[in-house]
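Preliminary data (for renewal application), 4-fluoro-L-phenylalanine complex.
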Amino acid sequence: MAEQRTSIHGQWTNRTVFILAATGSAVGLGNIWKFPYITGENGGGTFVLVYLLCIALIGIPIMMAEIMLGRRGKQSPINTMIALAKEERRSPGWVWLGWMGVVAGFLILSYYSVIAGWAMSYVFRTGGGMFLGVTADGVNSIFTDLVSDPERLLAWHTLFMVMTMMVVSRGVKNGIERAVTFLMPLLFGLLIVIVIYAMTTGYFMEGVQFLFTPGSIDGKGVLIAMGHAFFTLSLGMGAIMVYGSYLSKDHSIVQAAIWIALADTVVALLAGLAIFPIVFANGLEPGAGPGLIFQTLPIAFGHMQGGTLVGVVFFTLLVFAAWTSAISLIEPAVAYLVENKGLTRIYASVLIGVFTWFVGLGTVFSFNIWKDKTFSIPYMFDNFTFFDTLDYLTANIMLPLGGLFIAIFAAWVMRQQSTRDELATYPFIYMVWRVLVRFITPLAVIVVFLNAIGAIKI
Ligand code: PFF
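Predicted structure:
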């Protein structure tokens, strides 16, 4: 039955294109903006170790499961869940998993777009020579000026949302496919250039030590590390599932998932190696929070040979990386509207985009006029701004929860024969995957949740 389905939205030209698109979704602000600052806030080494373990033991198996579900269902995650549940003669109630993904997608994009806006404005700040010879204090005040001005943030947020809607409305194949192929390797290369600069600061080993020397971590830190593993690999909300639905049957899911996770991890670690030496060389705080890269990298650009050019190219690529991720955040919702409501892609993209833009206002104001409006949820967090709250709830709760149920669906609900056919890999690899998604992944997610709220102590 599954073999006869085809996607009404088209199909990737080949496997490489799929890997690039999925890598484009995975590699984004999560790697370069978020990973360094949450590592800084959570004390470094042990956090990185837990994150790497989560990528290997939870992330990669769930990525395989998501691609597999998508490719078998061949529709938006909502309809894929309906189709697969029916095929396996299970409750149609599984559809909520698709819906939760759609909601998580626009909640994430609503703040993602605001941060991408910061990166866009930094293209111009760097290009205008604002950082030439700048001190750490100088960079700090440039950053504070930007985020305390709601109008400027709003303008960049609006521009980024328009860019996202434009691509999604044209379908993924024409724009993104080609651009990603060319730009991702360039981003990688530039990160290496900045790592080389970081080596010259004389504080490289401090950076390495901070990233790789185990220290202490609490239950909340473990939850944040796990949540980030989902976030950075775009898992738990249907983005990878919907990309999987455009993949043809004869490609290896296992290999693709490993490539995507590897590329994503390398970019995050390179970002860490680029940023922490600069932090220590300039007496900055590793736990500075969301502004960390905007307060460190400009110092490098302001002092290195050709730094203005490198800086402009770097922030441009960062915007690009964010762009290729943003698209995948609303693709599940757009695909659903096209499938079920008969809307054109353009109309569906604009509808979802405008709604997301509106929610994004909350994040724009979180850094200025609503700075003191905070929320607390018992056992989870205290005094979080709107932005902090959205970020926490999506990355640390919704994505792991989505991933948990994707694992349960793939390993407990679907027949073994169905998953074996779809993954079509060596018996040993299949067995390892199955043990991981059937036992290890669900157990790990549950234990980390309980540990974070203090219900158990590990
Ligand atoms: N993986 C992206 C990043 O690391 O920036 C963010 C993201 C994209 C999360 C798509 C979730 C998603 F579905």
